[in-house]
Amino acid sequence: MFKRRAITLFVVTLVACFASASSVSIVSAAEPSNEDAAVLKRGKLMFLQCRACHELAAGQPNKVGPNLHGMMKRPAAAVEGFVYTDVLRGAGLQWDKATLDRWIERPSALVPGTTMAFAGIANEADRRALITYLELATR
Length: 139
Ligand code: HEC
Fold this sequence. Notes:
Distance between the termini: 51 Å
Bound molecules: heme C
Strand content: under 5%
Largest sheet: none
Number of helices: 7
Radius of gyration: 19 Å
Order of helices and strands: HHHHHHH
Helix content: 40-55%
Shape: globular
Structural class: mainly alpha
Number of strands: 0
């Protein structure tokens, strides 16, 4: 009886390990799973809405909006040579997943007065996919 319970526990733990390993595999695996690939593809599609105003790769110029290369974990309004609004500079934000999610949902709600002319993405899964893509593409 005890033995069976121990085995069940072991199997459950094993499954949990696999589940959590697969959710971080975008970062670690050379070949992402189909699910990860689908999320990235969706994120890349979402980025079409940002692309007119933002570059992601190092060395690319600022456009209407600043180049977003290296932005994760960085304070907001930190790209040299880009003229930000006072409200974004004074917002005291740092770009992590949670803050970015609120920004993408509705920039003008997070930072009233920002000049980023983008209404927002209402769908949570779309935002999550975009953030997953941005994390990878801005590294
Ligand atoms: C019409 C142009 C435009 C579009 C479209 C746009 N942005 Fe922006 N973005 C800006 C501008 C302008 C700023 C600077 C805003 C300010 O200074 O208040 C900005 C700022 C940002 C910042 C802050 C950067 C920093 O250095 O702190 C992020 C992050 C960002 N945008 C992400 C996005 C994403 C993601 C999308 C697509 C969902 C997007 N933007 C769409 C113009 C745009």
